[in-house]
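Can't paste images in this forum, so I'm doing it all in text. The chain is below; anyone willing to post the predicted structure tokens underneath?
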Amino acid sequence: MQLMMRGKTWHLRRRVPARFASVEPRREVWVSLKTDSRQQAAKKACVLVDAGSAAGGPV
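Text version of the structure:
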């Protein structure tokens, strides 16, 4: 998991696992966290990562 600032908005960047390469051509997925606060972004990212892990997906 990596938090990146794009413009004034924080984004979560995740690598797409190799097992999904046949259905997802991107090597990484960017998800907007829709906040300019690093603290809020970190909280939102943890929720997304936990949800993605529980579902077996990248995000």
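The longest strand covers residues 9-15. Helices lie at 38-55.
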